[in-house]
Design a protein that fits this description.
Blueprint (H helix, E strand, L loop, with lengths): L6 E7 L6 H5 L7 E4 L2 E6 L2 E8 L2 E7 L5 H6 L6 H5 L6 H9 L10 H10 L5 H15 L2 E4 L2 E4 L4 H5 L14 H14 L4 H4 L4 H8 L7 H11 L10 H6 L11 H15 L3
Antiparallel strand pairs: 1-5, 2-3, 3-4, 4-5, 6-7
Amino acid sequence: MQIPCENHTAELRLKEPVSLYHTFFCGQCFRWRPDGDGFFGVAWGRAARVWSVDGVLHVTGSGADSGDLWRRYFDLDRAYADIYTPWLNDPFMSRAVAHGEGLRILAQQPWESLCSFLLSQCCNIPRIRAMVDCLCRRFGEPISFQGLMEYAFPTPERLAGIKEEELVCIRAGYRAKYILAAARAVASGSLDLDRLQSEETEKAREELMRVEGVGRKVADCALLYGLGKLDAFPVDTWMKKARAYHPAYEGEYAGIAQQYIFYYARETGLR
């Protein structure tokens, strides 16, 4: 079945500068790519083109008539400058914030975030992007948009009904069984991602980590990027290296601090 698509344009006035490049390429998402003066991608089952001009974020997308979804997706109502200003007394954080100026934490679909970061284990970003793209093309619903055929992220119900060997095409290796375990947990209701959005972070983390293949890092990525838990602080190899340069961050916005640190560390090699 093809997802019906009416194209609409939303014009979202920005309260502070937003960098789409830093937002899409800081390691939190895998379905956006450069397109002319902007970017093209798929989020929440909608294909869209996004660009920014003179303090206005333009989104032409399928079903984007109100703009409310995109305002939430880009977290446009949160004042990031108020959050990071106290961190600028730390020289390392000052450099990290300057490097990632304008990045936002995207409000991604919880299932897509969990599944994507299960695939991310021991992988570089180009390979993650390739696996996610292949997964969507093979199992996602098609979306016709401006002469292109794109694909929604496959639902947990769709993946729960397939066999592990059917995932050979995406070259996920040992991660395939983890994807299916998570899909079956969500499809059966034993893992209720909607409910976890209203749970305390620690309790939500514990429930996520009961799923096969979900360790602390994957759980924290799902919490931060999919469940809106901005106090989650994912730690990977780059974050471990960066610990020598900065104090531990915790509290309500630890996840935003983590994103600046991770992006700076990965891009610069901490040189």
